[in-house]
Amino acid sequence: MPSYVIVGTSAGYGLDYQFLRTISEQDPQNVVIAVVRSPKEFQAKLDAEDQAKVDAEKQAKVDAEKQAKLDTGARCQWPQKNVHIIYGDMDSHTSRKSAADKTAEITGGVVDYLIVNACNNSLPTLFMKPAEFVDNEDLYLNELTQAMRTNVGGNLFAFNAFMRLILKSNIKRVAAITSAAAARDFIFEAEYSEHIQYATSKAALNTLVAKFAARYKNDGVLFVALHTGFVDTYPNAPKNFRRGLLCIGLTRR
Asked: Pick the catalytic residue: 13, 140, 198, 216?
């Protein structure tokens, strides 16, 4: 049974964009480790979603009976029995090591797939252009430091924490979630001058992944920096915020 570790599962790509759902549901034999910063809140979110699906199933059965159909409606699709939720903070060295140790206990010391999804994205400075940091140098440096700490340092330390488990696998696959925001062709062609700290840190992440790929190539470990395109991971954001992202991602030429 293959084992998956998803670091950064609480929101965004990790949960709302289906990583956890898809991997856990595609095969009940998959062992999925969800590394989250707030396990209790995360479990509550899963429970609420599961209950909503159960309610939907009941309603579907009622509707089916009324229509005298044989179909009993949709079944609950969340197989929680193969998902293990453990604590892990990308900005905490001790929690990363502890997460790897707990994972080893669950999987027998082996991890086949590692997906590092955690991210720091500065919303207050998201739409600021380079010249707008004149007289805002401290703001820029503070935001950049945090972005680099999580998006680069956090990934590096997560790779290192789980590498001993990856090396024992016969599969050995590692993916870091990067962004088109770091793609130079896109930046130039779309005149995409905002989102500076985030894009800079993701560009650094791409280089970091290449460094790990070079280091572990002869050990059979495949590293990939993966970006999925434009994805709405801010469902509760203000309309003007989401409109601004759409302008950047979809309408510029």
From this structure: 198
